[in-house]
Design brief:
This is HNH nuclease domain-containing protein. It comes from Stieleria marina. By secondary structure, the protein is mainly alpha-helical. The protein folds into 2 domains: 12-182, no CATH class; 190-266. Helix content is 48%, strand content 8%. The protein is built from 11 helices and 6 strands. The protein has helices at 12-27, 31-40, 42-46, 49-54, 109-115, 148-151, 170-182, 188-217, 221-237, 245-255, 258-266; strands at residues 72-76, 82-84, 90-92, 104-108, 154-156, 162-164. Strands 1-4 form a two-stranded antiparallel sheet. Strand 2 (82-84) and strand 3 (90-92) form a beta hairpin. The two termini are 12 Å apart.
Length: 268
Amino acid sequence: MRYIRIAGEPPQELVDKATKVAALLEAAESEADRKKVIDNNRKTYGAFKEWLLGQSHRKCWFSDTEALFTWFDVEHFRPKKLAKQMDGTEREGYWWLAFDWKNFRICGNVGNSQKGNFFPLKDPNRAATSQSRDVDEELPVFLDPTCQHDTTIIEFDEEGEAVASPDATAWDKERLEISVKQFRLDYGPLEKRRSEIWQECQREINRCQNAIEKQKSTPSPVARAQVQSCFERLTELVQPERQLSCVAVSCLHASELRWAMRIAASGS
């Protein structure tokens, strides 16, 4: 999971259309009527997909991949019809956010189908309602790729598994564990590809460190060129547009080499 820094706003025609449909939702007289408005206007929020994909170099916001999580959905981070705690307790859905683009995320169907209507909160008694609508008072359990701090909680290991960062709190670890389960970040093909990226990155780190040691003991144009080549390759692996670049960043951090950490930072 990489931090998705939203650049600009969606095309105005999409926003205008969504605003009109949101007004229909507000005017609906019953829950059944609201659900009908949402169901009849799926294309309205679906039309944001291309713009949202442009924010992440056409990658899933949760898995950091293009194809491994199958087709992409416009996912409602806060579910629109019904919201559930992990124990199955239900509460009102965030229907008033059904056409608010700030509630949209891009998620591969593998993860989105598992997440469903779940949106657990640390304290469900502080859940926003259609009367209060104060989502800022909530503490969501799920990690959010549009929240920079959340993306610092999740790292990866050589097996391709999602792990908590070294400074993660107990609450952070709980959030990570549940997010991995509900967004299928433990999906087998995804973990396998992460492991392959890690091994590729680790080989390059080892090659680079060996060249650096040679350059220290016996400076030569050959060693110097090899170091530069390795730096360029590692820098390429951490760029935001690369598939699973977040894994390469974790691998570089795990090396605890200062030069490697600087390269990791260059991809942020």
